[in-house]
Amino acid sequence: MADPAAKPTDAPGKTAIVLAFAAIYLVWGSTYLAIRFAVETLPPFLMLFARFFTAGILMYLFLRWRGVARPTAREWLGGAVIGGLLLLGGTGAVGWAEQWIDSGLAALIVAIVPVWMVVLDWVGPERRRPTRAVIAGLVLGLVGVAVLVGPVDLSGGGRMQFIGSAVVVFGTLCWATGSVYGSRLPHPSSPWMSAALQMTAGGGLLLLFGTAMGEWSRLDPAGMSAKSLGALAYLMVFGSLIAFAAYIFLLRHETPARVGSYAYVNPVVAVFLGWALASEPVTPRTIVAAVIILTGVVLIVRHRASKAPPDLPAAVPAAHDGEPGLDSPEIPCATG
């Protein structure tokens, strides 16, 4: 039976394109705030386990029902490695950090994922030297993060905010590593099945890590708020399934540069929603840092997205934590 991700023969209507862009812009941009709401009363790693494992199993069963080939053991292993980098290392870092930092701050830091991708391409086996425009974007991205985090008070709550920001920076490196090197690992030909494997295996790793961190002792069913549970359901359905479907749809009907624009739209959406719905402060320093970071991301994305996207494993909404996301505009993202 045909792969659900098979390229259609008829061009989609303008309404379908607009709705798909709305999904990757607004849904993936809102996942940062949803994560913040979810971790108010849910342990972060167990919450993300529930999100990704449930979405991954549902997607896997649907694909098998539609006749998509069963993955091999090597493909499962590849999915576990990529899922570990993207979902445990990447989205897990965001979930843990958002216990102490604002969702808008996390989203702006995550925007530097393309910076790490440039560095990894540069120092990796292929030694792909970036252009001057990409180098300028790299420098701007790093300067923007320095301005965003800035001098902090390392006593009390300031210390945890600094640690949380540093953990998100580490998460962006994990996302970039999974995105750049994931193509070298065995993966199904279907990007949908790749995403299902990564979410299922990555969810399992989140469960193991959350257990090792003692999160079961913090899991209090009586203390779970409706807001946190609603945010978790939103992340499962909209962040990991609907937005990813929209992303795959757009990759087959739009240019990589246009689809990759979510990399600098999502942080703006996240900062706005955090301010509007959670009273997160937007200071002049935040605005300046956002302009610097997003200018750098635009330079990198525009000058790296000239080639058509390969059929690679899914990588970070996410996410895009998504969130992504994660995420590389050249690689499908299921982490937002």
Describe it for me?
With 336 residues, the protein is mostly helical. The chain has one domain. Helix content is 67%, strand content 0%. The chain has helices at 14-38, 44-65, 73-97, 103-110, 113-123, 132-149, 157-181, 191-212, 226-251, 256-259, 262-278, 284-304. Helix 1 runs antiparallel to helix 9, helix 2 (44-65) crosses helix 9 and helix 3 crosses helix 8. The model is unreliable at 306-335 (pLDDT under 50).
How would the blueprint of this fold be written?
Blueprint: H1 14-38, H2 44-65, H3 73-97, H4 103-110, H5 113-123, H6 132-149, H7 157-181, H8 191-212, H9 226-251, H10 256-259, H11 262-278, H12 284-304
Helix pairs in contact: 1-4, 1-9, 1-11, 2-3, 2-8, 2-9, 3-7, 3-8, 4-7, 4-11, 5-6, 5-7, 6-12, 11-12
Q: In percent, how helical is the residue content?
A: 55-70%
Number of domains: 1
**What general form does the structure show?**
globular
Mean pLDDT: 83
Can you tell me the residue ranges where pLDDT is under 50 for at least 5 consecutive residues? 306-335
What is the rounded Rg? 18 Å
Continuous helix count? 12
What's the SSE pattern? Answer: HHHHHHHHHHHH
The percent range for strand residues is: under 5%
What is the SS-derived class?
mainly alpha
Counted beta strands = 0
Biggest sheet record:
none
